[in-house]
């Protein structure tokens, strides 16, 4: 009986390998047939059950997505489905090999679809999406190339900076990554897709912030605050004169907005991050300590907890 079971498991392993290859190629029907044959050999095999759950998640979504004519619309739908999938698989044991097959299916499709967009080489947003697709496929050098080109022909939007930062971590350039991620959250926290991060370094930071009890929208604002306090986003730079002037204007505006109870949950962490940047600028320029103390008092007035963590 044991010999028979081992024989079945050998057949199942072969069928699962074939199923993963079919899935990576986008042949979900063939992959499903392999899974169905596996199920007939062992109806409660854990990897077979995981694979079937994954296929059932994707089949209708892929049919629905490819029914749309526009390449960009299809690509954006695939990316949204991938985000949904990463949350879906969090509810039961993961099968990394099947996940990688679906990853290859999704991001190779996304790359192909964005590549078809007219004038893609001149469009910084398309270059960014091509970089994201390459990152999803594990082609980090090509991802870095696309994202770097996007940055060279466009204003540095937060999503672009954060994606390039993530790639820098994945290729071992952590210091560059810290600079860019801190910059991204300074530009616009709400433009950043934290579910898009692939590096354990950034995933861990986002997870730790979410574990403080804030929601997703609030987490984007708190990540740079806790990142600074915890010594993670600790690579700093001096502000240029124009940036310094704009920062003071933003601080003034947010100091008014924080009085609105409906906005305070998002305004408070954004204002704290701005205060951190201002203090860094004052320290780097060796300004009078009284100016720094004035900002520290403002931090204490809106968040005694953050003040305590920041000054200890």
Short description:
The chain is mostly helical.
Question: What does this entry look like structurally?
Answer:
With 312 residues, this protein is mainly α. It has a domain at 241-311. The chain contains 15 helices and no strands. It has helices spanning 2-24, 28-41, 46-66, 71-88, 96-115, 124-137, 140-152, 158-170, 174-187, 200-210, 216-229, 241-257, 264-284, 289-302, 304-311. Helix 13 runs antiparallel to helix 14 (289-302). The chain starts with a helix and ends with a helix. The model has no long low-confidence stretch (mean pLDDT 93).
Strand content: under 5%
How many helical elements?
15
Largest sheet: none
Helix content: over 70%
SSE topology string:
HHHHHHHHHHHHHHH
- Mean model confidence by pLDDT: 93
**What gross morphology would you assign?**
elongated
Secondary structure class reads mainly alpha
Beta-strand segment tally: 0
Low-confidence stretches: none
Q: How far is the N terminus from the C terminus?
A: 65 Å
Write down the Rg: 24 Å
């Amino acid at each position: 009986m044991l010999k028979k079971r081992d024989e079945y498991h050998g057949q199942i392993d072969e069928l699962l390998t074939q199923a993963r290859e079919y899935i990576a190629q986008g042949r979900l029907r063939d992959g499903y047939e392999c899974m169905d044959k596996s199920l007939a050999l062992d109806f409660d095999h854990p990897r077979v059950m995981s694979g079937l759950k994954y296929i059932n998640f994707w089949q209708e979504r892929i049919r629905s997505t490819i029914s749309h004519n526009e390449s960009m619309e299809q690509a954006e739908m695939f990316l949204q489905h991938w985000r949904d999938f990463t949350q879906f698989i969090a509810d039961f044991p993961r099968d990394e090999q099947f996940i990688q097959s679906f990853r290859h299916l999704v991001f190779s499709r996304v790359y192909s679809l964005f590549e078809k967009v007219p004038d893609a080489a001149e469009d910084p947003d398309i270059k960014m999406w091509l970089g994201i697709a390459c990152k999803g496929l594990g082609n980090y050098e090509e991802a870095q190339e696309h994202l770097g080109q996007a940055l060279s022909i466009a204003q540095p939007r937060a999503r672009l900076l954060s994606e390039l930062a993530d790639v820098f971590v994945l290729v071992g350039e952590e210091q560059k990554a810290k600079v860019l991620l801190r910059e991204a959250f300074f530009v616009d926290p709400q433009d950043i897709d934290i579910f898009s991060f692939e590096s354990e370094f950034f995933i861990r930071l986002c997870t730790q912030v979410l574990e403080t009890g804030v929601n997703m929208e609030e987490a984007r604002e708190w990540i740079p605050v806790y990142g600074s306090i915890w010594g993670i986003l600790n690579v700093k730079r001096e502000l240029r004169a124009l940036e310094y002037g704009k920062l003071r204007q933003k601080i003034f505006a947010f100091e008014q907005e924080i009085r609105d109870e409906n906005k305070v949950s998002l305004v408070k962490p954004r204002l704290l991050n701005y205060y951190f940047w201002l203090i860094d600028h004052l320290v780097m320029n060796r300004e009078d300590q009284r100016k720094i103390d004035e900002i520290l008092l403002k931090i204490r007035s809106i968040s005694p907890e953050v003040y305590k963590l920041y000054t200890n």
